[in-house]
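pinned: reference chain
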Amino acid sequence: MWVSVRANVRVSSAARRSAREALQIAVRAGGFSAIVVVGMAVFGVALLYATFYVWLGVDSPDSMKVTDLPLLLVGYGFGASFVALFAQLGGGIYTKAADVGADLVGKVEQGIPEDDPRNPAVIADLVGDNVGDCAARGADLFESIAAEIISAMILGATMAQRCKIEDPSGFILFPLVVHSFDLVVSSVGILSIRGTRDSGLISPIEDPMAIMQKGYSITILLAVLTFGGSTRWLLYTEQAPTAWFNFALCGLVGIITAYAFVWISKYYTDYKHEPVRLLALSSSTGHGTNIIAGVSLGMEATALPVLVISIAIISAFWLGRTCGLVDELGNPTGGLFGTAVATMGMLSTAAYVLTMDMFGPIADNAGGIVEMSQQPESVREITDILDAVGNTTKATTKGFAIGSAALASFLLFSAYMDEVAAFAQLPFKEVDIAIPEVFVGGLLGSMLIFLFSGWACSAVGRTAQEVVTEVRRQFIERPGIMDYKEKPDYGRCVAIVASASLREMIKPGALAILSPMAVGIIFRILGHATGQPLLGAKVVASMLMFATVTGILMALFLNTSGGAWDNAKKYIETGALGGKGSEAHKAAITGDTVGDPFKDTAGPSIHVLIKMLATITLVMAPIFL
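pinned: its structure tokens
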């Protein structure tokens, strides 16, 4: 946030000179924030690992084994999840309540443009972009990376122990090395986007999305090379000389999966492609058809990502399983670690993807500054182009985030089962949903996702009502606002959304934190009463499994439909189907308003929710036994 609020004024100034220069400043500002976020996640885990290693005297006589050390880091992932949930939930409520309130009164009732300084909610809307996108998405991916590093370290240590590998440190430290290289390769990709000054003239540029994708392609290519080198360096073992190559292929599967998620999200949310154009066309026949088309598009858009993630998990599991590493009984043991390596591959370009996300609110705020300072139309056209690209990059980042959340949750689920087995000294390798109590746990998990989403959206609705009431009051009591004779009270709207977002996030946040603990404790008591010591752990495992599956589908639906509604409106504003002020545009504004809490509050919060459920169960596993 510190960077974004300082960068947006520089971007708006650069747009007066050159569109490419504005793009470069926005990307590099987002890149700085992204590098800091990923760097902090890696540094935090590395520092804790090194501290515990020295403090506990690991591998000295009568001390902890190095393979048990990663289990002590689980609390770090839980802390990251806890903060990320409230940052995303509170930030999402803040930004979308302000946005919806500003649009309903400003655009629909008063007919004034977006980001018009006469709108009392405009400052709250622009501040909300930084809170909901920069800060919240940074916390989301920080949590993803921290959870993935820790779970991969646990699985690597477990596999090394089972296979009797002499020096397991390579398997444990591998995730940290991969993400350290991420900082380097993403920096190269970010710096590959260069700007030009055009002697004060506004020049059209090639598609900004194409420029950013070129940088992403460079990042991916470098990530493949560094990932292959890291696997050969750290995962080579004489027990299975070719295992490192299988794991390198697992990483390649993850990198391809990340690219596929970015491409699929772009296809369904960019107005250059057919789905969004058809959605815009549906607006020409009214508000209802726009809503129907948006909902159906979101549902349809769940299919391809689920197929991609399914293929990735199975491919990585079998590549790991056939790597040649076996336990004392000759059973292959590399399957789960192969999936962990694929997750690392997917997140090996996380810093660049986060850059693309943070680019969005910076460009959006720059457009607001240009509008409020009444710059020439040609300057606003440049910031509008960057803003539309920012909407697409934000949608692609959400697709990337849900894919990484799915893989990370699978790893955390496996780590949870291993931890329960270790604490209980009983085998715990499968969850049988034919057992009534376990099936009920699954139902509760799916219900949790829907209830959480409903509460998150209703929180936006209630807060937006307060904003609408305040904006209407100001227009009535200060009629000079519309003629620029009176200044709106921007601070009042900011205060309303700030206090309301803090108040409204308590209920859904408490639901997410307390539900798994309550279910685990209740069924633990029931299990001990009926002679089933693992019943509590099994029911929680079922709850986690169903919540993850339902959450992935729900988040994909909410993110994609919301992003498509937004860009359908942007497409009409380019002059298509009657342009601004037409009936199609009014219908598209309705769709965009409905989609706002979908794509920026409930959807992104579910990413965090499913990872937090996994980390809570991992941390609280002993109380379920």
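why pinned: The chain is about 80% helix and 0% strand. The CA atoms of residues 261 and 400 lie 6 Å apart.
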